[in-house]
Design a protein that fits this description.
alpha+beta
């Protein structure tokens, strides 16, 4: 029995060696062909008859000629390029729309006479042009009389609740999609519970002037993947206009 077992093991080893040798030979042949084709990139142009007989495994499992496969690949590449072009066109249209909004807001802010004008123009722009379901402005002040007269607009600079915005005010960062419950309640009061997404824009012109809060019922309206450059630029325009009237 041991002799039979030894013979079987020997046959298996020889068979395994033969398979390994065949693979090595196939690999060597493949490498040689690859090298020849790289050195002669016009080979199939000089021998177009090969396109009809060379076969490439298709995703469906069947075999197709190389020329059919090339046509399929080119068709997929064309579709990918068309999709990419459509995406770029959408981005271009969106950028143009945002540029128009920014331009109109700048013109409107130049015509304002006081803070009330600025507030009205800004809130209307956010609601009508930027699809914000909720928009609020909080301006910082240490003037108790002003805070009392314009409750809801002016807030005390020393308010403990403002610590929730400390980091974004220090770094002048506009934030989309990331807000704590404390921040939402401070900005939107009783409406905070219904708001699904938030953008917060710090108003800075030399000093911290205040905050703009934007809220939406749609969880995707303001999300963390959005770019904040546009909102930051809008914030700079508003801050410059407010600074002029606050100084006056």
């Amino acid at each position: 029995m041991s002799k039979i077992k030894t013979a079987e093991d020997t046959l298996k080893k020889e068979s395994s060696d033969d398979v390994a040798t065949e693979r090595e030979q196939q690999l060597a042949t493949d490498l040689q062909l690859i090298g020849l084709l790289r050195e002669n990139p016009d080979f199939l142009n000089r021998h177009p008859e090969l396109l009809a007989v060379l076969e490439v495994k298709h995703q469906t499992g069947g075999a197709v000629s190389l020329i059919e496969r090339q046509v399929d690949v080119l068709r997929q590449q064309k579709q990918t390029q068309e999709n990419r072009l459509l995406e770029l066109m959408d981005v271009a249209r969106d950028n143009e729309r945002l540029a128009e909004i920014r331009h109109r807001l700048a013109i409107d802010l130049l015509s304002t006479h006081d803070i009330d004008d600025v507030i009205t123009i800004v809130l209307d722009a956010f609601r009508d042009e930027m699809s914000a379901d909720y928009a609020v402005i909080k301006l910082f002040s240490s003037d108790e009389k002003k805070i009392e007269q314009s409750a809801g607009l002016f807030v005390n600079t020393g308010d403990e609740a403002l610590k929730a915005f400390k980091t974004m005010l220090e770094h002048k960062n506009t934030v989309c999609g990331k807000s704590t419950d404390e921040q939402k309640v401070y900005l939107f009061d009783e409406k905070a519970a219904t708001i699904k997404s938030v953008a917060i824009i710090p108003l800075v012109a030399g000093a911290n002037l205040g905050l703009i809060g934007l809220g939406a019922d749609n969880a995707e309206r303001f999300n963390s993947t959005m770019g904040t450059e546009f909102l930051s630029q809008i914030g700079e325009l508003i801050s410059a206009s407010l600074a002029v009237h606050l100084e006056g």
